[in-house]
Amino acid sequence: MTTTLITGGTVVSATGRSHADVLLDGDKIAAVLRPGSELLGTDLTASVDRVIDASGKYVIPGGIDAHTHMQLPFGGTAASDTFETGTRAAAWGGTTTIVDFAVQTYGERVEDGLAKWHELAAGNCAIDYGFHQIIGGVDDNSLAVMPKLVDEGITSFKMFMAYPGVFYSDDAKILKAMQVAADTGLLTMMHAENGPVIDVLAEQLIAAGKTDPYNHGLARVWQAEEEATHRAIMLGNITGAPLYIVHVSAKQAVEQLAIARDRGQNVFGETCPQYLYLSLEEQLGASSEEWGSFEGAKWVCSTPLRSRAEGHQDHMWRALRTNDLQMVSTDHCPFCMKGQKDLGLGDFRKIPNGIGSVEHRLDLMYQGVVTGEITLERWVELTSTTPARMFGMYGKKGVIQPGADGDVVIYDPNGHTSIGYDKTHHMNMDHSAWEGFEIDGHVDTVISKGKVIVDDNEYLGAKGDGAFIKRGLSQYLI
Ligand code: URP
Ligand code: ZN
Ligand code: ZN
Ligand code: ZN
């Protein structure tokens, strides 16, 4: 068993920061040497296998990205990162755990969808991983199987009020599934957009000759997000099922969450870096020499990037400060422009939806610390501690304390990261949605279960390092 001592750094948690040394023994954290600790004053440097000097740097729990879609079949193609490439990219960016979505659609058995996801991931991941279950087809079989998911460590499932004909569930189906969730402790995750309304608006735009990616944003109006968010909250209220709204981008949807939370309902929301930084005008409306006005396809995702003029982005930052939103995940769902996004040339509805960001979440959120949008502690809370609590992994993940997994990132606030095109990221994509972003910080060292997997811009991990995590029930409920 390898022992590692991280010395001289500032250990940051969701609730504070302190100068402390961290001792890793095998795959666990053995001790945090700060005032009050038994081992403080003992010189361990000679007795450990390795000493890492973290002077001037932050020592934080490894990032947890609770919303990724490796290899997701979508729009006639599949997300371009495999579990191997996507988890390696995540590791590069300081994320040591992902929670991906196993898929079940109409007519399929939930067990089969889940088994397939285990097959895709097993032995291929660089970091630990868990699964949520997508229930795309609510029927007697899926309703009967849902309670068994809890025993398998799949304690959350996602339903869709969008994408009619693909993953969509109507209110009756959602109600029935939520009743099962309320009985079993499963956390209901909701894609909250009114899909039938959006599809009519999209069809009308196409009929009027408006086929560019920009129109994806015009079709997916904020009212469709606010309305669906409200409806999901009411269905949660009727059934008593705790509810987690994924990828929130409209300020009006946040308002619905805030009202429900003020009433004491178990309702939570996540946003993603793209909804904090990017916009309808600048990205969906972009054009380039290579792609013309199809350039915006790089940023076609759902919910869509919203108008900066309407102030959604500022409101998302605010909601992260006030805890109206609790978490930041990426919704990592990468597609290449050539051969994937370009399926939608001439019809924005055919552009596979998704952005790749799994590698950049910690950096992008750290830039929010630099600009004063969030505190250092909130950064750790949003990207690691709350995801661990929300999805039943806290204690093992999300915190630096004795007994926790040895998932630790050493982050250098004096370093610099330029995010860009071509070879400067590790995701399997032919472009970057984040080209040109400059971060005043740097992921220096990434340790997963006691093993250094990223060290000074060198990758030392291997596929198969990561294992499936059987998650418990949410530890975040009111
Ligand atoms: O555009 C997105 N978000 N693609 C992934 C599927 C989903 O709805 O999360
Ligand atoms: Zn979604
Ligand atoms: Zn998603
Ligand atoms: Zn550095």
UniProtKB/TrEMBL annotation:
GO terms for molecular function: dihydropyrimidinase activity; metal ion binding. Signal peptide: none annotated. Its cofactor is Zn(2+). One of its GO terms (cellular component) is cytosol. Residues 58-452 form the Amidohydrolase-related domain. InterPro entries: Amidohydro-rel, Hydantoinase/dihydroPyrase, Metal-dep_hydrolase_composite, Metal_Hydrolase, Metallo-dep_Hydrolases_sf. The keyword Endoplasmic reticulum does not apply. Carbamylation allows a single lysine to coordinate two divalent metal cations. Pfam families: Amidohydro_1. This is Dihydropyrimidinase. It comes from Microbacterium halimionae.
